[in-house]
Amino acid sequence: MLAQVGITVTVALLALAVGGMRSALSALLGAGVAGVTTFYASRRASVPEHSVGAALRRVMIGEFIKILSTIALFAAAARVPHLVWPALLCGYAAALVASWLPSMRERAVAPAADGVRVTNESGL
Q1: Cα-flanking dihedrals φ and ψ of residue 117, to 5°?
Q2: For 41-58, what is each residue's pLDDT tens digit?
Q3: Using CA atoms, how far apart are residues 46 and 61, in angstroms rounded to an integer?
Q4: Which of 35, 60, 39, 58 is nearest to 47 (CA)?
Q5: Element (H or E) spanning 36, and its range?
Q6: Measuring CA to CA, which residue among 36, 40, 64, 60 is closest to residue 49?
Q7: d(C-alpha 18, C-alpha 33), whole Å
Q8: Which of 43, 50, 88, 103 is the most exposed place for a label (fewest CB within 10 A)?
Q9: Cβ count within 10 A of residue 40
Q10: CB 45 within 8 A of CB 19
Q11: Torsion sign (Cα): 63, 67, 68, 69
């Protein structure tokens, strides 16, 4: 969460420097879309289930709702006057990537169950 806020603020400040206040607000709006939908999907996925199939179904439905919500929020953003689309999309992309960072960091350093270090498919 802290990484997402830090990257969002950085992108908004860059947008402010390049395109002014409208660009900065558009970048924040894009980050808000990513933040709200990611928060929803992560909370939905964290609910315990009685079986693996039920847990997978919960995650898949959550991701589907996340996609529909993202489309709806972008459609709502399109109605905002003087929206700067490149800044909005940059804010969205930055916040989305930042939400992946903690899980990528955990995976890079977490040992596997048998004590072998987890690596990517190429063995690196």
Answers
A1: -70, 135
A2: 889 888 888 999 999 999
A3: 13
A4: 58
A5: helix 21-45
A6: 60
A7: 22
A8: 50
A9: 14
A10: no
A11: positive
Amino acid code (one letter) for 110: A
Q: Domain coordinates of the chain in residue numbers?
A: 2-106
Which residues 6+ apart lie within 8 Å of 47 measured at CB? 58
Please say whether the beta carbons of 58 and 49 come within 8 A: yes
* Residue 52 amino acid letter: V
Tokens of 105: 């960091």
Taking the mean position of all CA atoms in its chain, how far away is CA 43?
13
Residue 26 exposed, middle or buried by CB count within 10 Å (0-12, 13-18, 19+): buried
- 3-class DSSP state for residue 42? helix
pLDDT tens digit sequence for 55-71? 999 999 999 999 999 99
pTM of the model: 0.78
User: In the predicted model, is pLDDT for residue 90 greater than 60?
Assistant: yes
Of 33, 42, 44, whose CA–CA distance to 69 is shortest? Answer: 33
**Residue 118 structure tokens:** 């987890």
Helix (H, G, I), strand (E, B) or coil at 111: strand
